[in-house]
Design brief:
Blueprint (H helix, E strand, L loop, with lengths): L5 H9 L2 H4 L3 H11 L6 H15 L10 H9 L6 H12 L3 H4 L5 H8 L8 E5 L18 E6 L2 H13 L6 E3 L13 E5 L2 H7 L3 H8 L4 E7 L10 H13 L4 E7 L3 E8 L4
Parallel strand pairs: 1-2, 1-4, 2-3, 4-5
Antiparallel strand pairs: 5-7, 6-7
Helix pairs in contact: 1-3, 1-4, 3-4, 5-9
The structure holds S-adenosylmethionine (SAM).
S-adenosylmethionine binds next to α7.
Length: 271
């Protein structure tokens, strides 16, 4: 077996086509974390891959073929919003976390965002396939849609979608574990990602909420685990949101859905 070095860990992780799709800065961060923790290269690679699976791989359908989905998108006529919605709905099924929202999608954003002004810009953080729900969001089609995640072909697909609808926005790679995305926006979406970030370090989310250049954030939490079990998540996540927003610049409103609890955070004093 090769020597335990940073570059060998990175090569070992990206040897798997699945993990070669992850943003290089995330692979490097994990390799640097694992290097001092192991004596053998194989265990360092395995530990990093397990973390990538938990962060991203577990949500993605293993049969996903991006080229085919993109081709189907290209075949839709530019002003055929109905076909676009059907394509988006079908594609959202391929991301386990985005999929869980589909049963509530017609009402989800209408209810959770009903009290705010139509946004001119939206920043969707750790977006998964949620940008494809833009046709169901207030702000469609005129708001500039910005989105970030760590899965590169997913970001390419979202860029193809935004181009298809002539949206000036774009999708980009971000590592929320270490960076706060720079673009300002009328509305930021932080959907079902706080638990993942909390698992890495509980200081990440307070820093993010404080550092984002936006006055309105819709943040949500899952109400069942990927395995489908309710583990008292409602109370746990209500408490976490209270902890995150106590003495903060935000006032908070709660919305409960079948699989998800959402919190609308609005800067105090904002009309
Ligand atoms: C639970 S899913 C939520 C997806 C989407 N927000 C939704 O609710 O439909 C978590 C998402 O976070 C992304 N992710 C994981 N680690 C990340 C990181 N460090 N920075 C940015 N995104 C990350 C994953 O690729 C995945 O798409």
């Amino acid at each position: 077996m090769a020597e335990l070095t940073l570059s060998n860990i990175i090569d070992g992780i990206t040897h798997s086509p699945k993990y070669a799709q992850i943003a290089p800065e995330v692979i490097s961060r994990l390799a640097e974390q694992e290097l001092p923790r192991h004596k053998k290269l194989s265990t360092a690679i395995k530990a990093a891959r397990t973390k990538l699976h938990q962060a991203a791989g577990a949500y993605l359908d293993s049969s996903i073929i991006y080229a085919q989905i993109t081709k189907e998108l290209e075949l839709i006529h530019d002003d055929d919003v109905e076909s676009l919605k059907i394509w988006a709905y079908k594609t959202m099924r391929l991301h386990a976390s985005t999929e869980e929202r589909l049963s509530d999608l017609e009402d989800f954003y209408r209810l959770a965002l009903g009290s705010i002004l139509q946004p001119d810009s939206i920043l969707d953080l750790a977006c998964g396939f949620n940008p494809l729900s833009f046709p169901y969001q207030p702000g469609f089609p005129n708001a500039t849609y910005l989105a970030c995640d760590i899965v590169l072909p997913m970001l390419d697909l979202i860029n193809a979608f935004l181009k298809k609808i002539n949206n000036p926005g774009y999708a980009f790679a971000c590592d929320l574990a270490v960076n706060i995305p720079d673009p300002s926006a009328d509305l930021a979406l932080l959907m079902k990602t706080i638990p993942l970030l909390d698992q890495l370090n509980r200081q990440i989310v307070p820093r993010l909420l404080n550092g984002l250049k936006t006055d309105v954030i819709l943040a949500s939490f899952p109400l069942k685990s990927l395995g489908g079990h309710d583990k008292g998540m409602l109370n746990t996540y209500r408490s976490r949101m209270a902890e995150l927003t106590d003495n903060s610049r935000f006032e908070v409103e709660e919305f409960a859905f079948h699989n998800e609890i959402a919190f609308l955070l609005r800067r105090k004093g904002l009309r």
